[in-house]
Amino acid sequence: MTADDPAAPEVRTADYHAAGEPFRIVDTADPGLPPAPGDTVAERCATAIGPGGSGTAPRPGALDSVRRLLVQEPRGHAGMYGGFVVPPDDDGAHFGVLFWHKDGYSTACGHGTMALGAWAVDTGRVPAPDEGDVPVRIDVPSGRVAATVHRSGGRTTGVTFRNVAARVGARKVPVATSLGLAEADIAHAGACYASVRARDLGLDVSRASLGDLVRAGREIRTALAAHPATWHPDGPLLSGVYGVIFHEELPDTPFGPHQRNVTVFADGQVDRSPCGSGTSARLALLAEDGRLGPEDSLLHESVAGTVFTGRIARAAAAPGEAPDGLVTEVTGSAYRTGEHRFTLDPHDALGAGFLL
């Protein structure tokens, strides 16, 4: 999609936020939008990234031009997040989604899954009762996830995200940064996350520290790029550090640990929410530490002051196999913020826009 393309389509979006983090939804079934070829959502994601590209450096393509139009200013911003709704892998899911952000594509997104669950119910795509819960099954590049939408009085009151299995990759990996030496705990939860105590670098999790946290997050992601614990057995799409989680302890609640975090993901993007799939990674680490049992829950707070709660749903194991990870559930809220019809004027010299 370019400024000199008079056939550039109108792009309709439904915008939500989950705990403060935006999520812009685009249904690729809408007329005029480019297709996302592939037999599975993972294949469609690889197609969108393009041959020789990566999740944070996709190759130019028709669908990626739509992503850039929606994340870049003046239609978006550097903190924008969203997804392309695509067909599911099979009839076991309601639909699939390709998650995207300012730098490219991600294999998992908990807050986006929550927003998609609310959207599916709001639009009637998945029928829901006025009272009770309804599961929305979604195929994402890392596997099949579910958003259980909680309803009361005819409205959505919350959404619980059930992730793919989370597993610990490595503990206390030393990482050198410009702020000093830190130790990273690596966990996979649909994407690979490195958890670091903010105090190791003389920082706290606050808005005032965001500049230093973003710088350190970029450095840690680069330093761990070749670490074997960041490799996923399903291949390069799921491998490599996607996000760095800086966390700090708060007083425990009667139900379990209480932590504040900020996740710096992709190329320095800051998650305004407590990070849904990142919370899954934290749950796996806390469980291994013995701090989170079957009856406990994590109260997880974001740098913006919003919260998710997380728990271990069960150990993950195929029939006859040893457990390999934990199935986690993260509960939060998702609200519609607007609907948009974006266009690209062929005479607009800014074209698809810019990022600052």
Summarize the structure.
With 356 residues, the chain is of the alpha+beta class.
The overall strand count is 18
Output the number of helix runs.
5
Please give the largest β-sheet.
Answer: 18 strands, mixed
Q: What class do helices, strands and sheet pairing give?
A: alpha+beta
Indicate the radius of gyration in whole angstroms.
19 Å
Mean pLDDT: 94
Q: Could you state the oligomeric state of the chains shown? A: single chain
Distance between the termini: 21 Å
Question: How much of the polypeptide forms β-strand, as a percent range?
Answer: 35-45%
Poorly predicted sequence stretches spanning 5 or more consecutive residues: 3-7
Binned, the helix content reads: 10-25%
Overall geometric form: globular
Order of helices and strands: EEHHEEEHEEEEEEHEEEHEEEE
Structure overview:
The protein has 356 residues and is of the alpha+beta class. It contains 5 helices and 18 strands. The protein has an 18-stranded mixed β-sheet that branches. Helix 4 (210-223) links the parallel strand 11 and strand 12. The two termini are 21 Å apart.
Features:
single chain, 356 residues, alpha+beta, 18-stranded mixed beta sheet, 38% strand, disordered N terminus
Give the arrangement of secondary structure elements:
Elements: E1 11-18, E2 21-27, H1 41-49, H2 62-71, E3 81-86, E4 95-101, E5 105-106, H3 110-122, E6 132-140, E7 143-152, E8 155-162, E9 167-177, E10 180-188, E11 192-197, H4 210-223, E12 241-253, E13 256-265, E14 269-270, H5 276-288, E15 298-301, E16 307-315, E17 326-332, E18 334-342
Parallel strand pairs: 2-3, 4-6, 11-12, 13-15
Antiparallel strand pairs: 1-2, 1-18, 3-4, 4-5, 6-7, 7-8, 8-17, 9-10, 10-11, 12-13, 13-14, 15-16, 16-17
